[in-house]
């Protein structure tokens, strides 16, 4: 991971909830500078930190925000959407049968051909070779059992797992609000 004091390409702003925690860790909650400036003018956010880069019009000048916080708290208690990305995130981007991070797919623990549904409780992340090997068999008939029983996560659990996958490039002004173990590059 690279932590930089130089502005990142495009000058994105880290978006914090009103409690000064990131809205999301994975993907990291970032807005393009244009959205951040618009939100400042609409008084929806407060600027916490800024880049040295200045934008201006004939009558106005402003440093681009690097960290903004929402004025109104966004509740994170809603159940997460069932998406391929969220299933992979719940399972740590690893096959639940062998641990491989490569060529990931969905696997129905109770196969669809046997009445299995596409739900949080019946889907696990599987690499293509394991998914092919299991095929339409029950997990116990194929000799393959998932490492963890699939279940519906809550948003806090997904956020916690997301902290294990920091982006490759971070701006130093964000570091007080992100909770990863990172060392500054010299």
Question: What would you note in describing this structure?
Answer:
The chain is an alpha/beta fold and 186 residues long. The protein is built from 5 helices and 8 strands; from the N terminus they run βββαββαββαααβ. A hairpin with a 2-residue loop joins strand 4 (45-57) and strand 5 (60-70). Mean pLDDT is 89; it is low at 181-186.
What's this model, at a glance?
The protein has 186 residues and is an alpha/beta fold.
Keywords:
disordered C terminus; 186 residues; alpha/beta; two-stranded parallel sheet
Q: What's the arrangement of secondary structure elements?
A:
Elements: E1 2-4, E2 13-16, E3 30-31, H1 33-41, E4 45-57, E5 60-70, H2 84-90, E6 104-108, E7 123-127, H3 128-134, H4 139-142, H5 155-162, E8 169-171
Parallel strand pairs: 1-8, 2-5
Antiparallel strand pairs: 2-3, 4-5, 6-7
Distance between the termini: 12 Å
Residue windows where pLDDT falls under 50 for at least 5 positions: 181-186
Number of strands: 8
Q: How big is the Rg?
A: 21 Å
From the helix content, strand content and strand pairing, which structural class follows?
alpha/beta
Mean pLDDT: 89
Instruction: Report strand %.
Output: 15-25%
Helix content: 10-25%
The quaternary state of the protein chains shown equals: single chain
Categorize the overall geometry: elongated
Counting H and I runs of at least 4 residues, what is the number of helices?
5
State the strand order across the main sheet: 3-2-5-4
The description of the largest β-sheet is: 4 strands, mixed
List SSEs in N-to-C order: EEEHEEHEEHHHE
